[in-house]
């Protein structure tokens, strides 16, 4: 539950905007207007840590005005912007560099307009299939209880012959999405890690077991499902920890498979830990006591495509990780598709 709300007055022209506004008003949460969801002032904090925490407890009700969707290569063709940011506080959040020091949450109430743009894009690319990613700017699940936008989007794609939707989450409030007509057009992905890593770095997110329980419900509901294991770390006992993760995953999945489940509808994505100098500086600003392994001397420097470099594990270390994960998938889920290992 956010501690404070801002709203764009125009958002109240939309039924969803009115509904969310009334809900928070009835909960006695401080609620104030803002001129733009992109420039919210009034999020306090004397230190970077305070400002960050305050932002994570702030929700903005806005209207997404841009008629363009950004591209989202290589995993999808376009981003589908349902929300921005999320209440989790993962130290290595993939959004932290783009969202800046105050990553406040934003929900967009003009969902019908957003889906109309989606439809136009799908039609313009016909007869090709167009894939949209719903988690490029947020984890869309935590705000679902206020907006219902994910449900509406999955139902929309269920009716689109040439549209596909995918998103990834660390959250578990999946119940409202289990009985809707997804028509196999939405791929539901969960981000997983060993419980030790979740405890250390993924503050304010559900535990591994909670995520597996949610994934089991999603599989039972017949959705195509995928798992991202990221970031992968080499830490003491990493092989045993990640082995246990796969044992648990096998148990939860196989106990809940629907009759018509096809094993090749399961996908895996693997991302080893990496960091840029900028990310390191942001992380140490917000989490001054972080235990994240970010010693440049222990890593290999690799130039990135946008001119800045990143620190990755050494080639031998990555080879060992890759061999371990590919063999583990082969053992537990031989028919699954590995989308990438980086
Ligand atoms: Fe970032 Fe995802 Fe963690 Fe939210 S759950 S803070 S979006 S990494």
Automatic annotation (TrEMBL):
<dbReference type="InterPro" id="IPR023897">
    <property type="entry name" value="SPL_firmicutes"/>
</dbReference>
<dbReference type="InterPro" id="IPR034559">
    <property type="entry name" value="SPL_Clostridia"/>
</dbReference>
<dbReference type="GO" id="GO:0016829">
    <property type="term" value="F:lyase activity"/>
</dbReference>
<dbReference type="Pfam" id="PF20903">
    <property type="entry name" value="SPL"/>
</dbReference>
<keyword id="KW-0456">Lyase</keyword>
<dbReference type="InterPro" id="IPR007197">
    <property type="entry name" value="rSAM"/>
</dbReference>
<dbReference type="InterPro" id="IPR049539">
    <property type="entry name" value="SPL"/>
</dbReference>
<protein>
    <submittedName>
        <fullName>Spore photoproduct lyase</fullName>
        <ecNumber>4.1.99.14</ecNumber>
    </submittedName>
</protein>
């Amino acid at each position: 539950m956010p501690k404070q709300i801002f709203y764009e007055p125009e958002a109240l022209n939309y039924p969803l905007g009115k509904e969310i506004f009334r809900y928070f008003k009835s909960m006695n949460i401080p609620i104030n207007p803002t001129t733009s969801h992109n420039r919210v002032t009034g999020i306090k904090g004397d230190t970077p840590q305070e400002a960050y925490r305050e932002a994570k407890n702030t929700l903005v009700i806005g209207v997404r005005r841009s008629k363009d969707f950004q591209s989202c290569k290589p995993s999808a063709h376009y981003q589908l912007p349902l929300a921005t940011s999320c209440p989790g506080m993962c130290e290595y959040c993939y959004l932290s560099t783009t969202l800046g020091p105050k990553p406040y949450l934003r929900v967009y109430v003009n969902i019908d307009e957003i889906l109309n743009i989606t439809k136009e894009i799908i039609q313009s690319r016909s007869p090709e299939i167009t894939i949209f990613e719903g988690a490029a700017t947020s984890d869309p699940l935590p705000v679902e209880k206020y907006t219902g936008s994910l449900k509406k989007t999955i139902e929309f794609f269920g009716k689109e012959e040439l549209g596909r939707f995918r998103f990834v989450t660390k959250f578990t409030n999946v119940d409202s999405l289990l009985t809707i007509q997804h028509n196999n057009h939405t791929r539901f992905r969960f981000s997983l890690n060993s419980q030790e890593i979740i405890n250390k770095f993924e503050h304010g997110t559900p535990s591994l077991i909670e995520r597996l329980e949610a994934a089991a419900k999603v599989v039972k509901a017949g959705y195509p499902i995928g798992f991202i294991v990221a970031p992968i770390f080499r830490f003491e006992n990493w092989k045993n920890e990640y082995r246990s993760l796969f044992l648990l995953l096998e148990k939860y999945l196989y106990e809940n498979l629907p009759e018509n489940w096809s094993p090749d509808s399961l996908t895996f994505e693997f991302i080893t830990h990496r960091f840029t100098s900028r990310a390191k500086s942001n992380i140490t600003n917000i989490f001054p006591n972080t235990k994240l392994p970010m010693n440049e001397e222990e890593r290999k420097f690799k130039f990135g495509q946008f001119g800045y470099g990143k620190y990755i594990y050494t080639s031998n270390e990555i080879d060992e990780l890759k061999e371990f994960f590919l063999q583990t998938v082969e053992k537990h889920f031989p028919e699954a598709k590995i989308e990438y290992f980086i």
